[in-house]
Amino acid sequence: MKLINSKICTLIICFILFLTFLSHIQYIMYDIYLSNGWRHLRHSEFKITPSGLTDDLDEMASINKPSSVSANLNLSNVLNYKAKSSFPYMISQIERASYAVESQFTSTFSYQKNSINPNEYFSKSFDKFHNQFVFSTHQKINNKWKKTNNLYIGPKGSSPKPDSKIGTFKNPLIQLAWMQPESPENSYPIHIIYDYKSKRFYRLDYFDYHINNSELKITEGPTSLAGTPIAFITDDSMPNNVWLHWEQPTRKTNEGLIKPMDDKLNNHLFGYHTLVLLDTGRIAVLDNNTLKWTYAKAAGLTKGRSQPVEPEKLSGYDIMPIFRDQNYFGYAVANLSKSCDLLTINVFDKDGIRVKQDSVARTSHYYGESSIFATRFILSNLRPALLELLSYVVHKDRNANEGLLDILLPTTTIAAEIANSPLEGGYGFFVTFVWSLPGIILSLILAVLVQRNATKIGLTKSDRRYWVLATALLGLIGYIAYRINRPKTKFVTCKQCGDLRNPEDSHCHHCNTSWDLSHLNTPLWRIEQASQKGERIASNPSV
Amino acid sequence: MWTLVKRELSDVVIFLITIQIITITALAISGSYLFEALEDKPYGLPIHMYSILTIGGIILTWLASIFGCYQMQTDKTHKVSTFLCTLAATRQTILLSRIITGLIFTLLPIILTAIMFYIALQFHPRVFDLGQYSTILIKMFFTLTLLAITNYAFGLQLGLSFDKDQKQIDAGKFLLLLTAISLLLIILVYLKGIGLTCWMILLLLSTCSFWLLFNKYTKVPL
C-alpha cells in the first residue's frame, strides 16, 4: 500500500492523459501530411493505357477506346482506412480485429432465384455456418417477424435442423460466384468456402437444390495450400485505401452506341476460376469445378521484383482479376508502399509475365509542408525521449498498418518513420537520437527546474530524487505531474536566513533554524498542574 | 451509511431529477426514430443505437464530471464535511456516501437507455440472431459506464481543490478543465476501441483518481 502513493497515481494519470492527447494530435498531423502529399494524384491521370492484356483487341481498327488500368487513393481518408477506424468501421472493429469486418459479423448475400431469397451467415457464437432461407422476405405476422431456418450447412453435409454430424466451418472465407453452363441466362450461384480448420476449399452447389429440390451438393477440395488464404480476389473485395479500376476496350457501333470489344471479357466472377490472395502475397488460381488450385505464375503482390511482398507489409493494395471466356486471363495489381510514399501498378498476363508497369510517388512539395513537418517534429519531441528511442527499435520490422492508434508507441512519430526508412541499424538509431535530442535537452532542463524548485520549497531528499528522475525520464509529463503534486503551501520569510520557508516544518530547510511556534504553544492556564488535579478529584470523586 | 446517502441525495435531488428528465426526453425523441429504423430494417442493429450511445455517452460523461465537481465544491462552500465530522460519521463514510450518490447519478441514465434498447429489440425482434451485435451493445454500455465513472472521479478531485475565495475564477477554470479531461477520455476510447485494453486503461485511471481523492480528502484540513 505504501508503494501506491499519490506521487505514482498523479504520474500515471498525467502519463496516460498527456500521451493520449499527443497521440491523437500526431495522428491528425500524420493524416494531413499523407493526404497533402497525395493530393496531386486526384488531378493527375495515373493510368496505364492500353493495359497490355488485350493487345489483339486494342490494336483493331474499330477501336473506340483502348483498355486501361488506373489506380487511386481515398485521399480524404487515407489514414482512417489505414487504421480501419472510420465510423462506423470504428464501432464494428471493436477491438481492432485482425480479420476483415465482413467476417467478424454476418456475411449476408442475397439473390433472386425462383422467388427464393437465401441469407446466409456464419455465427461465431455457435461456431456454425448457417444458411437460412426466408421465403417471405421480412414478413411481419402479429407484429413479429417470421423467421425460418431451412437449412444448416457444414463441411460434411447439410441438414434442415441443427446437427452436429454435419460438422462446422471455422471462421470461413466465403465467396459467391456464378456458373454459366450454357449462357448467362442459365447461370446459377455457387459458394466457394475456405475452411481454416480443415484447410480445404468447399463448393456449395445450389443448382439441383433449387431446380430439382434435391439435397444440397457440397464438394470438398484437396487439402492445404503452401500459404494461408486471406481473401478471395474480386473486383471490389479489398477493403483498402487503394482502388484499382479496369476498363475494357470498347468500339463504336454503326448506330453510334459504345459497346465492349469482346463480350466475354470481364473482371467479375463469372467463370471457372477464382483467385485467392495468400498471406505470403502470392496468388492462387482455383478451379471452381474441381477445387484444385495452382499458383499464379506472377509473384503476386510485388513492386516488380520476383519475390512477393506480404500484404501486411503494404499500406494498401488492390488486385483486379481479368477473365476471358470464363477463364483466368491475367490480373492487375496496385500497391501502396509501407511508408505511403509510392503507388505502383503492375499488369501480369496469365503466364506470369509482367506486361505493363507504372508508378507515382508522393510529392513533398505542397503548401504548408514545412509547418506540418515542424509541428510533427515538436510533437515527437514532447513525448518522452526514451519512448522515441524505443519506437525506433520496436517499429523496425513492423507491419504497415500497425500501431497508428497506439498511445505508448505510435507509428505516427518521426522515430517510427526513420525506423521504416532504408537507414540501417546503428546509423538509423543515431539519426533517431539526433532527432530526439531537443526532447532530451528539454527533459534535462525541466529536471534542473524541478530540482531547484523542490529544494526551494523544502521537499524531502527522496521526494526530490523521485521527481527529478521522473522529469528526466518522462520530460514534460514528469514536470506537469510535479507541478500538480507539489504541496501548495504559502511560504513565509525565515527570520534567520531571509529565504522562504515552510511554516508547517519545525525547522527552516535552508538554515535549519527552529521555528518559534509561539501561537501553537498551549497557554499555561490551560495546563492542569498535579496539585490542581488532586484537588479537583477530591472535590468531585464521581467524575 | 444509508442516512448519509439519503442526506447526499437530498442535496443533489434537483440534479438527479433534471438528468432523468433530460434522459427520458432524449430517449423519447430518439426512440421514435429508433423504432422506425428497427421496423424498416429487420436485421442487424440500426445506426441509431450507436448514435444514441455515442452522443448520449459524450454528454453523460461531461455531466458526470461536472456533477462530481459540484458535489465537492458545495461541500467546501457550505462546510458540509466539517459539520458531519462533528457527528458520528468518519470522513471515509462521508466520501463513500458521496461516491454512491455519484454512481446513482451516473448509472441511472445508462440503465434507462439499456431498458429502452431491450424493449425496442423485444418489440421488433430481428430476423437473424443478434449474435455478435448484442456483444457490441454490452461492450458499448460497459465502456460508457467506465468512462462516466472515470470522469466523475476526476470531477470529484478537481472539486476538492476548489477555492471558495476565488469562486468565479475557479468555476470557469474548472469547467474548461473538466471539458478538456472529458474530451481526452473520449479520444482515448476512440483511439483504443471499445475493448479490453480500453477498459484496463479506464480502470487504471479511475482507480488512481479515487485513490488520490481518498488520500487527499482524508488529510485535507476542514
Topology:
The complex is a heterodimer of chains A (543) and B (222).
Chain A: H1 6-43, E1 47-48, H2 55-58, E2 63-65, E3 68-73, H3 78-83, H4 89-92, H5 101-104, E4 117-123, E5 128-134, E6 140-141, E7 144-145, E8 151-154, E9 157-159, E10 173-179, E11 188-195, E12 200-205, H6 207-211, E13 217-223, E14 229-233, E15 242-247, E16 250-252, E17 258-260, E18 265-266, E19 273-278, E20 283-287, E21 293-295, E22 316-324, E23 327-336, E24 342-349, E25 354-361, H7 369-382, H8 385-394, H9 414-419, H10 425-456, H11 461-474, H12 476-485, E26 492-493, E27 500-501, H13 530-539
Antiparallel strand pairs in A: 1-3, 2-16, 3-15, 4-5, 5-8, 6-7, 8-9, 10-11, 11-12, 12-13, 14-19, 16-17, 18-22, 19-20, 20-21, 22-23, 23-24, 24-25, 26-27
Chain B: H1 2-11, H2 13-40, H3 47-78, H4 80-84, H5 91-123, H6 132-160, H7 167-192, H8 196-219
Shape of chain A: elongated
- Count of distinct strands of chain B: 0
**How does the helix and strand content of chain B classify structurally?**
mainly alpha
Helix content of chain A: 25-40%
State the major sheet of chain B.
Answer: none
Order of helices and strands of chain B: HHHHHHHH
Helix content of chain B: over 70%
Can you give a write-up of this model?
The complex is a heterodimer of chains A (543) and B (222). Chain A has 543 residues and is an alpha+beta fold. In chain A, strand 4 (117-123) and strand 5 form a beta hairpin. In chain A, strands 18-22-23-24-25 form a 5-stranded antiparallel β-sheet, with no helix packed on it. A 4-stranded antiparallel β-sheet of chain A has the order 4-5-8-9, with no helix packed on it. In chain A, strands 10-11-12-13 form a 4-stranded antiparallel β-sheet. Chain A has 2 domains: 6-28 and 366-485, no CATH class; 45-351, no CATH class. Chain A is built from 13 helices and 27 strands. The two termini of chain A are 43 Å apart. Chain B has 222 residues and is mainly α. Chain B has one domain. Chain B is built from 8 helices and no strands. Chain B has helices spanning 2-11, 13-40, 47-78, 80-84, 91-123, 132-160, 167-192, 196-219. The longest helix of chain B has 33 residues, at 91-123. Chain B is elongated and about 60 Å long. Classes of the chains: A alpha+beta (543), B mainly alpha (222). Chains A and B meet through helix 1, helix 4, strand 4 and strand 7 of A and helix 6, helix 7 and helix 8 of B.
